[in-house]
Design brief:
The protein has about 525 residues and is an alpha/beta fold. It contains 23 helices and seven strands. The structure holds 6-phosphogluconic acid. 6-phosphogluconic acid binds next to helix 11 and helix 14.
Length: about 525
């Protein structure tokens, strides 16, 4: 009280602030919204337990992370760097023995706690608990969920940050809901560096849980050009993981296009020359993360001065998300041919023994002339990328309609402008295209751009073929373009064949109705 403090002030000597100044201090006093508020009239017996429990509470971590692989570790460091207190869990098994210790010793002065058992880990977290699983997609996710469920409480929130299949996410969402635990399936893109400095995040689930994790996730996410986090709720259920899967599908085709260009150019140019072409494209409208890293990759040498890329076996791996994306396109009846071609080509590259065997028996006289029209090549590349993005976003639109997800394509493009693997100048432009609620091909400028590049696409594909280089993604882009802009396809013959052997019926050009006609063909 004013009276008590004035009295104390009167009793002290030699202090610059006299008791007469106290009233104005009291007048300006604001009750702080931080710290612990106690009644001074309470007895010490009543105060001490309150202080104790407050201290315990303040030591609880805001975020839990399960799995200290490269992505989990970097995500935890990212959170700590943004002043989010973190508890991490990693199992103690022979191969992963030092992950926990090395993580904790790398951040001694940060607000981190480490555990190799779930009970202590769960107890160390603020309620409702917010836990991100950063573990390999598949059965391991189910196993860890079951183990965690033993300790989780009503209202806690589990986030699966791995590349899980969206249907698994939907199953887990329902399963956890029955236990009153909320589940968010969140795609995270950006690789190890993204996880550390700001990934693009694609969560799916219910709004209530998302709102609770947003304050933390928004500190960790990449930031777009308008200072907004590359993060938003995609939609309900498995939609977040679906969006991430299509991101990866687009990523596959983007990588395949660059690989086809590299194949075409390396016939006559060295790595440095190709890298400098890529750099020029980056500086002239075609910039993307994948183009930039491809240039860096081409220039990287080992200690002996040999290019590393030249020493890498030509068998491309994959972890499954690209295959799922291609399968989903088929399931949804949306053409996703570029993704499919890219997936198949990786698969085909794996048949190394057969390739060697068949190549042995062939003597080709491939054209070895340099392909020197780099502007034309860039034009073809740009338009093939437009078609790739068109197909990818159309799959998203198809899924959104099919599942009632109400996906916001413009917002998805925005979230993909930073942090993720397919970030690019093009992606920035797509934010505005989709804001008009139209597809890429329905955008007049984009359509014109592809139309103007039709000849370039043909020339590039022909050049590849004349050098005996497979051009699956470029070809698919051109095939798609020719078909989607054709007034009259030759598919009438297919209808006739179907009717010939199966009596399936066909519609007639001279009839508006849906009526099916049959012919007695023989
Ligand atoms: C990302 C990537 C990443 C993906 C790898 C590997 O967005 O950060 O898409 O999530 O796991 O690219 O994928 P593949 O092994 O199938 O090439």
């Amino acid at each position: 009280s004013l009276q008590l403090i004035s009295e104390r002030m009167r009793n002290r000597t030699g202090h610059y602030m006299g008791p007469e100044m106290l009233q104005s201090q009291f007048d300006a006093l604001e009750i702080p919204d931080y710290g612990l508020h106690l009644e001074v009239t309470d007895s010490p017996e009543a105060l001490i337990p309150k202080i104790r429990s407050w201290l315990q509470q303040t030591q609880l971590s805001q975020l839990g992370i399960v799995g200290l692989g490269v992505m989990g570790r970097n995500l935890a460091l990212n959170a700590l760097n943004h002043h989010v207190s973190v508890s991490v869990y990693n199992r103690k098994v022979a191969q992963e023995n030092d992950l926990l210790d090395s993580f904790l010793s790398d951040c001694p002065d940060k607000n981190a706690q480490g555990f190799d058992e779930f009970e202590g880990f769960i107890k160390s977290l603020e309620r409702p608990r917010k836990i991100v699983l950063m573990i390999k997609a598949g059965e391991a996710v189910d196993e860890v969920i079951e183990q965690l469920l033993e300790f989780l409480e009503r209202g806690d929130i589990l986030i699966d940050g791995g590349n899980s299949f969206y249907r698994d996410t939907e199953r887990r969402y329902v399963h956890l809901l029955q236990k009153a635990v909320h589940f968010i399936g969140m795609g995270i893109s950006g690789g190890a560096e993204g996880a550390l400095y700001g990934p693009s995040m694609m969560p799916g689930g219910d709004r209530h849980s998302y709102d609770q994790v947003y304050p933390i996730l928004s500190k960790i996410a990449a930031i777009d050009q308008h200072d907004q986090p590359c993060l938003n709720l995609m939609g309900p259920g498995g939609s977040g993981h679906f969006v991430k899967m299509i991101h990866n599908g687009i990523e596959y085709a983007e990588m395949q296009l660059l690989s086809e260009i590299y194949g075409l150019l390396r016939v006559a140019y060295n790595n440095e020359q190709i890298a400098s072409i890529f750099d020029r494209w980056s500086a002239s409208g075609s910039d993307s993360f994948l183009l930039q890293i491809s240039s860096k990759i081409l220039l990287k040498t080992d200690k002996a001065g040999k290019y590393i890329v030249d020493q890498i076996l030509d068998v491309a791996g994959s972890k499954g998300t690209g295959n799922w994306a291609a399968q989903q396109a088929l399931e949804l009846n949306v053409p996703g041919g570029m993704i499919n071609s890219a997936v198949e080509f990786r698969m085909l590259s794996g048949f190394k023994d057969s390739r060697l065997r068949y190549a042995e028996n062939l003597k080709r006289r491939s054209d070895t002339h340099a392909f020197s029209d780099f502007e034309l090549l860039q034009q073809a590349y740009d338009s093939a990328r437009l078609i790739n993005h068109h197909q990818g976003f159309e799959i998203l639109a198809g899924a959104s309609a099919n599942h009632n997800w109400d996906l916001d394509l413009s917002e998805i493009a925005r979230i993909w402008t930073q942090g993720c693997i397919i970030r690019s100048e093009l992606m920035n432009a797509l934010v505005d295209v989709f804001a008009k609620d139209i597809s890429i091909l329905d955008d007049k400028d984009m359509f014109k751009k592809i139309a103007r590049s039709e000849a370039a696409l043909k020339t590039v594909i022909q050049a590849g073929f004349s050098k005996d280089i497979a051009m699956p993604c470029f070809s698919n882009a051109l095939n798609f373009w020719l078909a989607i802009t054709s007034k009259n396809l030759a598919t009438n013959l297919i209808q006739a064949q179907r009717d010939f052997f199966g009596n399936h019926g066909y519609k007639r050009r001279d009839s508006e109705s849906d009526k099916l006609f049959n012919t007695d063909w023989e």
